[in-house]
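Example 4.3 (complexes with small molecules)
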Amino acid sequence: MSAKILDGKTIADELRAKVAAEAVKISAKLGRKPGLVAVLVGDDPASQAYVKSKGKATEEAGMASFEHRLPENTSEKDLLALIAKLNADDAVDGILVQLPLPKQINTARVIEAVDPAKDVDGFHPMNAGKLATGLPSLVPGTPLGCIIMAKKAHGSLAGLDAVVVGRSNIVGKPLAQLLIAESATVTVAHSKTKDLKEVCRRADILFVAIGKPEFVKADWIKPGATVIDVGINRVPGADGKNKLVGDVAYQEVSKVAGWITPVPGGVGRMTVACLLVNTLRAAAARAELQAPNL
Ligand code: NDP
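Answer. The structure with NDP bound is encoded below.
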């Protein structure tokens, strides 16, 4: 058997086209384009690349993209002052602070400083709490993208056994909450889980977000299951250059799974598209307009 591919590029492109169409309508009502600002502290090349691609995607969706690049030695006080300014800026609907931050800055304090109404990453404890209690909220992009992909494979997720490996605040935990909201039966596994392989084998849908290259093997998968690989790992390739691989051993797992997401070209594509969705939702909600039809 060979798994069908859940192609992140195609699904994300569809979503981005819908966002662009809705952005035109919302821009007309606001009298300006919805605006997303990215704040980058330091010069980590991966973070720079992410911010650049998010900015490009924002503009392609017909929204305004702003950027603040701060030096590596920026103090927490200065970063918090910038966030306060952006919170008060009416042209800014979404604020994205690229993580990780340099060690002199307390990440939790920065996340809490962002106005929850502009928290397009969905990391603010108020948005996390709303998600957990079933209230409308801004939801982190990566788990939102995972759910959209899972629904492409299954339609409804109700009653399915879903296993999430990883319990971070940005992926595993919000993903588990979203799955509960979809009426899946959810197990969350992590580094202390006993007999992880057997836990994974129970899954109708397996989500893996651990940051360990090709960790999940073919004999961990129930035949026909859907496998959604969130991991992004850089490893040396045969040609000596770095290549990207997921947390799942793609070649062997795709022989057992029913559906699978590739890396690259899978969940990563959805993360950016969902950030755009959140920016549009934030712009509409701030102006008390009807939520966009996405
Ligand atoms: P974190 O490091 O914050 O969390 C990793 C989680 O994996 C932890 O809960 C940890 O368990 C668990 N874990 C680690 N090792 C094992 C193991 N051997 N067995 C079982 N569980 C394990 O990572 P993130 O959630 O931020 O990211 C996970 C991966 O997803 C990374 O590769 C990252 O690059 C990628 N990612 C991809 C995105 C995308 O757009 N596609 C976006 C965000 C992340 P414990 O809690 O017990 O320590």
